[in-house]
Amino acid sequence: MTGGRYRRPDGSHRVVVTGLGAVTGFGVGLPAFWQGVTEARTAIQPTRRTFEGMEVIRPAATVAGYRPLDYFSEAQLLTCEPFVQYALLAAQEAIAGAGLTSADLTDAAIVLGCGGGGEISREETAIHLFGNRRPRAHPTTVPRTNHQAACGMIAIEHGILGPSFVIATGCASGSHAISQAAMMVRHGYVERALTGGTEANVIYAVMRAFDAARTIASDTCRPFSHGRSGLALGEGSGILVIETLESADRRGAPVLAEIAGFGMSSDATDTVQPTMRGPARAVMHALADAGLATDQIGYLNAHGTGTPLNDRVETEVAHAVFGPHAARLMMSSTKSQIGHTFGAAGALELIATILGMARGVVPPTVNHLGSDPDCDIDCVPNEARARRFHAAVSQSFAFGGVNAAIAVRAV
Amino acid sequence: MPDSTPFADSPVWGGIKDCIVKVVPSLREAEFTPDTRFDRLGLASIQVITITFEIEELFGIGIVDDGLDVFETCGELEVLVRRLAAAREVTA
């Protein structure tokens, strides 16, 4: 009887991660991402966007040295915005890492998070129609702007015929997508899935929009630090291959971590002001679902936007959920390194968590100037830390008061 | 009176060629004749639609609106664009 290893206590499948792919401000590929994380660098820099003599410069992490024609044909680029391109590249890397062929993926699911979709084309179309008062929109406006283009192109590229869809819950999209995909694998709807998130909307209009919401940092993103002033925009994609442990063992695939549990919740309080009860509820659900006690969690990858309010509330959440263990919990923000990648954030931050757990390195919070009494947690400031941990949580909270947390465990 | 300007020197064709290259930069060095068929250029349908859009924008004409997006060769397209552009000038 193999059920003991392959099944959860309720009889459902154990779900594991066997492949990872990343496109970030550090460049294309997982090695560039992990090198940037462990070297405690930041990809955030002053980034300029213009429109007809108007200019805005804000901190952002765009994909370093990215040249689309190095990876895609002209015909592909005509209909694929960068958020789709990044998802395709990250998926390719994750599939290769998992040792899967197209034949293995025929029935797989694709569940991705994406907050904005084709914002670049939306901005260009608005300029064309309303600014230039032209009568026709560009013919590729629809295929370029729809969120699900990311799923569709991955399916086309790899011959995947299973269910595919996008979850759009802003900053929590990636975490929600992974939770949903894990649920589908856990309960046998599919044996494996490609999941994660993607985003590329560092454009003039988005900079102005987040400016207006007073969320962008004056200089850079400094989570949990004194002197923090807000978030930095980011772009990229993180994709995970997840499958049943039984499938991974059968294939002899490398098991990087178990998606042990997930929790989702709503604040039901305010659309923009974070509160403690919603996030705390998501984390507690994730731990309960995973069957993990609070003191088993060695590391928590925080939402960590770097806004004054988020980081204070997130610290309160840590104390409320973990109690005395919060003092020993290592809790850092990858957003200080790659910016806030919105729909991709939950996925990239979970990938950093999984790699850290697999390699015995705790991702840091960089740009940290010194402790803030409101954030009395160990945020692993400015240097990655060589330390083994065997279980961790990655959490994401979004405008609208929607939250998701994922608990992972070493296998 | 028919325009006797050679195809390659036609300013209208020059504009059309710019539109083609804008959408498909790799065709910059390609040789075009009046008989070059669009279906032999290896273009995806969305590329042809986009080239048509760029031509409409450049010349201020409505190929699709007039139901004339049925050209097969570069020569047919050049004649069509020239005719629509001339009609537009008369109307204006």
Short description, anyone?
With 411 residues, chain A is α/β, with parallel strands linked by helices. Helix content of chain A is 35%, strand content 22%.
Descriptive terms for the model:
heterodimer; A: 411 residues; alpha/beta; three-stranded mixed β-sheet; 22% strand; B: 92 residues; mainly alpha
Q: Give the total of beta strands of chain A.
A: 16
Helix and strand succession of chain B? HHH
Count, helices of chain A = 14
**What is the rounded Rg of chain B?**
13 Å
So how many helices of chain B?
Answer: 3
Our estimate of the beta-strand percent of chain B is: under 5%
For the termini of chain A, the CA-CA separation is 19 Å
The percent range for strand residues of chain A is: 15-25%
Structural category of chain A: alpha/beta
The biggest beta sheet of chain A reads: 11 strands, mixed
- How much is the radius of gyration of chain A in Å? 20 Å
Specify the overall morphology of chain A.
Answer: globular
Q: Catalogue the unreliable spans of chain B.
A: none
The most extensive interface between chains reads:
A-B, 10 and 14 residues
Helix content of chain A: 25-40%
- Topology order of chain A in helix (H) and strand (E) letters: HEEHEEHHEHHHEHEHEEHEHEHEHHEEEE
Describe the 3D structure.
The complex is a heterodimer of chains A (411) and B (92). Chain A is of the alpha/beta class and 411 residues long. Chain A has helices at residues 3-6, 30-38, 74-79, 82-98, 119-131, 141-145, 149-158, 173-186, 204-212, 245-251, 277-290, 308-322, 335-338, 345-359, and strands at residues 15-24, 27-28, 45-51, 54-61, 109-113, 164-167, 192-199, 233-234, 236-244, 257-266, 299-301, 330-332, 361-362, 385-386, 391-398, 402-409. In chain A, the strands form 3 sheets. In chain A, strands 1, 2, 5, 6, 7, 9, 10, 11, 12, 15 and 16 form an 11-stranded mixed β-sheet that branches. A 3-stranded mixed β-sheet of chain A has the order 3-4-8. In chain A, strands 13-14 form a two-stranded antiparallel ribbon. In chain A, β1 and β2 (27-28) form a beta hairpin. In chain A, α4 crosses α7 (149-158), α8 (173-186) packs across α14 and α11 crosses α12. The mean pLDDT of chain A is 96. Chain B has 92 residues and is mainly α. Helices cover 50% and strands 0% of the residues of chain B. Chain B contains 3 helices and no strands. Chain B has helices at 11-23, 45-59, 74-91. In chain B, α1 (11-23) packs across α2. The longest helix of chain B has 18 residues, at 74-91. The two termini of chain B are 21 Å apart. The interface between A and B is medium-sized, with 10 and 14 residues.
